[in-house]
Amino acid sequence: MYSSTLLSKSSIKTSPAFTLNNQVFQTHIPKPLNNNFHSSQPLTLKSLKVRAMDTQEGVPSMPSFDFHGIDQKLVDRMVYDSLVWSSLHGLVVGDKSVQRSGKVPGVGMVHAPFALLPMPFPETHWKLACEVAPIFNELVDRVSLDAKFLQDSLSRTKKADAFTSRLLDIHSKMLDINKKEEIRLGLHRSDYMLDEQTKSLLQIEMNTISSSFAGLSSLVSDLHRSLLDNYGKLLNLDSKRVPGNTAASQFADALAKAWTEYNNPRSTVMVVAQADERNMYDQHWLSSLLKER
Name one GO molecular function term (predicted). Predict the structure, then answer.
């Protein structure tokens, strides 16, 4: 199984500061890109090295692909195709060098940073992450209903963080007037990585306030499948091993369900965006899917 990756400097805020140049591919492309090539150019592979990964006891081993063994001309061609694909399919963000790119749609768009190829990932760990997701979701929901625990556990954070302080003040006011909500919706995103030494699946963080990239990350999986459909035989990688990513449609379904539960045709789903939001297209993807519901 291969894991598709969208790269960003921040996994919480919806407008991370992206580095949009050849450095995005620095890990896989040690030389400057040269896209002045023709489709008739022969594409060859260097001797690719595949080694077995050490794994936890009872977890099947899987090969580790040597991305640096790929011929530079093939890399250049895949980069070119991936940038064309990103432009055609909306895998874009606003360019921070263009002043209005975070305010006016269609101005200063560039491709979102992404890994050129999907990363091999143990299927057992993938399934584990999927299985524990509902458990973490229920945990967050239960904690959100424990007013005293929230106020007490975040009391020190309140003193140091203005944003948290403001949220707790609103929470206190709702408690004072005995305001309760029977309809609740949580859109969460858990981030995981494999520990190199123990090969354990470790949760890095769980995003609850701003679970971004549902729209763009779904596109990254599609991009990787498209690249492997064209170059998979040369790389000995199977596009069918890239798992589907339906995060955007699931988020839209959840929002539509919450709206239905209110049973008020005048109710509205409000999207709160930051000023100069260069990640607006991720949000527009979600809004567009919601309108189709």
Answer: glutathione binding
